[in-house]
């Protein structure tokens, strides 16, 4: 089965549309899954500690045009958690913390421990592959060791342990194609 995995949309209509079009073009009939931060919370981390019962329009960037693109399942990101916190709107908590697909675990990445230089310490998981986002930087690690990101070339992952940061939709229009039959991962970028 083929999966198109995308993360960190941050309510960006144009780039999300471009990524979805690119997926449609190069990998039609692919199962699309989001890794969270679908929406942009307008209230910062610090301020959010003090804010409750905010109006949705004051707390998040959400419009019908962008909503109409969200036809695929997603897990939860820190933006959804914060929007739910400051507005009390439970709809933003409808997403799971993690999802397991064939040989792969999907998380947003805010559950990962990041040091000051944004080096992640990965949690122990059952599957060989871990897909995540959050830091807005595509990356691939084999057993925790970082390697250069190959774009547009299917990387054969076999059943080795790889941790894959799919990169952000919002700045870079990036996404990953995962083929669970061939066991390949391809980093993609829409133009
Ligand atoms: Mn994000």
Automatic annotation (TrEMBL):
Calcineurin-like phosphoesterase domain: residues covered: 1-144
Homology family: Belongs to the metallophosphoesterase superfamily. YfcE family.
Protein name: Metallophosphoesterase family protein
Organism annotation: Solibacillus faecavium
């Amino acid at each position: 089965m083929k999966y198109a995995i995308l993360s960190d949309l941050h309510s960006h209509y144009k780039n999300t549309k471009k990524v979805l079009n690119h997926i449609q073009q190069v990998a039609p009939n692919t199962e699309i899954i989001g890794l969270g931060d679908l929406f942009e919370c307008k209230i910062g981390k610090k301020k959010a500690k003090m804010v409750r019962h905010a109006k949705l329009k004051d707390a998040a960037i959400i419009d019908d045009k962008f909503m109409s693109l969200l036809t695929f399942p997603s897990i939860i990101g820190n933006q959804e958690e914060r929007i739910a916190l400051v507005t009390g709107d439970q709809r933003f908590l409808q997403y799971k913390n993690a999802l397991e697909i064939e040989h792969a675990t999907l998380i947003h990445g805010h559950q990962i421990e990041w040091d000051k230089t944004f080096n992640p310490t990965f949690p122990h998981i059952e599957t060989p592959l871990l897909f995540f986002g959050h830091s807005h930087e595509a990356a691939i690690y084999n057993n925790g060791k970082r390697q250069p990101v190959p774009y547009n070339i299917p990387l054969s992952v076999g059943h080795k342990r790889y941790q894959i940061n799919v990169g952000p939709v919002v700045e870079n229009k990036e996404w990953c194609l995962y083929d669970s039959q061939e066991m390949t991962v391809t980093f993609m970028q829409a133009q």
